[in-house]
Amino acid sequence: MAERTEAGWSRSGEAAPRWRSLLGRGRGDRAADPAEAANGAQRGAQASPVDEYVARLRRDMGPAKVVAFANPKGGVHKTTATVLCAATIGSARGRGVLAWDDNELRGTLGLRAGSARHARTIRHLIENLVEVENSSGEELRDRLDEFLRHAADGSYDVLAGDEDHRVARLLDPPMVWRVLELLRRTHDVICVDTGNNVESANWQTVIKAADQLVVTSVPREDAAFTADWMLDLLEEMGMGDIVANAVTLLSCPTPTPSPMLADLVKHFQSRTRTVAVVPYDPALESGSSIDYASLKPETRMAWLQAATAVSDGF
Ligand SMILES: Nc1ncnc2c1ncn2[C@@H]1O[C@H](COP(=O)(O)OP(=O)(O)OP(=O)(O)O)[C@@H](O)[C@H]1O
Ligand SMILES: [Mg+2]
After folding, report:
1. CA 77–ligand 2 middle distance (angstroms)
2. Inside any domain, residue 9
3. 13 Cα: distance to centroid of ligand 2 (angstroms)
4. Does residue 285 lie in a domain region?
5. Which atom of ligand 1 is nearest to the CA of 196?
6. Which tens digit of pLDDT belongs to each residue from 130-176?
7. How far away, in angstroms, is 247 Cα from ligand 1 center?
8. Which stretches does the entry tag as region Disordered (predicted)?
9. Is there an atom of ligand 1 within 6 Å of 278 CB?
10. Which of 139, 142, 219, 300 has the highest local Cβ count within 10 Å?
């Protein structure tokens, strides 16, 4: 169905002309295209499931979707997962995907997504929010774009967090709703890196507003325990539905497989809708800029499967 967002992006048709150069860079690069990339991992197979995954990611998803990536434990690949899910969905869809670094304490998503053509962050968007909200159509997209950065391959946009921790105070529930509503007017999929503070109104508002929860963890007892505790907390807060529909993303931070992995897969399968496992990749270990094209084909294949599992809940 050729549906249009207010900003004029066709959900299933051609990209708006302004984005063609970005798409050309992203999608013209064979390695950055998830179908091409993952097909590399599938070479020789009779019938590749890759085209099916890409087709599922490209389908009309209806109204814009907010995806919250959460686990209050540090270092459990929230930021990595937010960036790589946005990159995978954005590469498949070609447009309309945004990653918001809503980490209250010095988020690193802006850095890891690569390009920074300006230093504007959520703080500057908040300062100009009324003006942007009052725009519509092309003007809205252009006004908002002044506050966004773009992934190096153009596959998704980034709304960066601010270095100043006092900005967190501005992000009270009404403000978080307004920002998300604005982003829903211009983007189809909004991936939010939620940070680590479950007590904050900001964190709780994003989870409440989310259409899909992604629980990230690594195969370690402390990380899995914290994820489990968070799911208990959300159930106690009356959010059993979002817990049951959640996807658990288990990332392997070392090349050696963890003996805990199989048990954790089983455990989170019993608590959440599905579990996806993504492998260790040396290109991710440095914690610096994430370059989708430098990931191993099997890593891209795993992220393609994971992102499809996430989008199946939309
Ligand atoms: N599959 C992987 N292979 C190799 N390294 C990985 C993998 N997944 C994550 N990492 C690395 O683990 C580190 C922690 O990941 P990340 O920064 O995404 O965690 P986080 O949950 O966002 O942490 P924080 O809560 O501190 O913001 C990073 O250096 C990242 O590059
Ligand atoms: Mg992080």
Report:
1. 7
2. no
3. 34
4. yes
5. 25
6. 999 999 999 999 999 999 999 988 899 999 999 888 899 999 999 99
7. 18
8. 1-49
9. yes
10. 300
Q: What pLDDT does 16 receive? A: 34
Ligand 1, atom 14, residue with closest C-alpha: 75
Please give the residue range of the domain that contains residue 303. Answer: 17-311
Whether 5 is in a domain gets the answer: no
**DSSP assigned state of 192:** E
Supply the CATH number for residue 43's domain: 3.40.50.300
Q: What whole-number percentage of the chain has pLDDT above 70?
A: 84
Contacts of residues 263-268 at CB distance under 8 Å and 24 or more positions apart, as own/partner, are: 264/217, 264/219, 264/224, 267/224, 267/228, 268/215, 268/217, 268/224, 268/227
Amino acid at 40: G
CB neighbour list of residue 229: distance below 8 Å, 6 or more residues apart: none
**Cα–Cα distance measured from residue 99 to residue 115, given in angstroms and rounded to the nearest whole number:** 13
Tens digit of each residue's pLDDT (9 = 90 or more) over 50-108: 999 999 999 999 999 999 999 999 999 999 999 999 999 999 999 999 999 998 877 78
pLDDT at residue 43 greater than cutoff 70: no
Q: How far apart are CA 122 and CA 168, in angstroms?
A: 10
Determine which residue's CA is closest to atom 7 belonging to ligand 1.
253
Give the DSSP H/E element, type plus range, for residue 299. helix 297-311
